[in-house]
């Protein structure tokens, strides 16, 4: 007989969700809050640091690489020692490591601290995603997966502005904001609870199921390739705007903000699209939208044409993360959730890191320019949409009575 204290428990209110969603948003805040101060860092360290041109971008991109490398380890630790404990510790380290660069005067030390900061981000993102899978099932789980994506987008936009405003005074000031998550730790300790620890005795009596390895592999591949395509807008749009004579930093920033807004539109549409089209059908739609957006961007000759491409691409990007994450969660067993979501987080951020490298490789391989490389990646996205369409048609023929909401 299993003790009632060891039985699985589900979240009964919104308090756990609010804490987890705020915790999830810390990862996007980690990058967007310092992005606006890069010019000031260049002015400060450029004259005295020979490698400033290489190191300064790493202040923003370094944590993403650290997340990609450390997320699988964070997932293992979450399964081994508990999600709540690791989340609280990681949030404490996030606050302290995030604020330390404000006290440093060496660019190499700042980059090193940002890499350590990324390790804390990896644990936070992995634990928050895992707790969503632990606390909720079915439609409630889908709902909080989508809430997570929307919250990350909103907080990213908010703190991008806040970081820019505070950075006007000094490049050091935004780093002090990383101490704010210390206020979240008491709520984590009080509201969150540790999911059932699957001891051998409990595991014998609780149905665990088996990991769906194929679904896991497909989800990992989808989020990796998808993020390669998604980040093209953020990284390459400024260069395309300059190529058509748009050099105003305000207009370039507005294009980035418009892209973020359209991503939120996609995230908000995801629940409806999933019910109408199913998971596979949503993959067809999102990859088609990304392909169309990239094609429009590669052929744009005016600012409005760029905005149209960014908007369409952003809707597809907003559908991507929840549509890839939900099947991965469902493919895992309770005892493998941490490791599985750690792998998902790793693939997500590895795709972001690889994106500019993929564009550079396309330019070199095809002997083309930036527009040609983006066009080639648009075709790759369209090919992916066609593969998912074939999978959807095959599944419909094989099991016509199965509900599309879980396909």
Verbal overview:
Mean pLDDT is 83; it is low at 1-7, 198-207 and 401-407. The longest helix is centred in the last third of the chain and has 51 residues, at 249-299. Helices cover 78% and strands 0% of the residues. The two termini are 36 Å apart. It has 14 helices and no strands. With 407 residues, the protein is mostly helical.
Sheet having the most strands = none
Number of helices: 14
Nearest-angstrom radius of gyration? 21 Å
Mean pLDDT across the residues is 83
Task: Bin the strand percentage.
Answer: under 5%
What is the number of strand segments? 0
Share of helical residues: over 70%
**Oligomeric status:** single chain
Q: What general form does the structure show?
A: globular
Q: Strand-and-helix sequence, N→C?
A: HHHHHHHHHHHHHH
The rounded distance between the terminal residues' Cα atoms is 36 Å
Q: Pick out the low-confidence regions.
A: 1-7, 198-207, 401-407
Structural class: mainly alpha
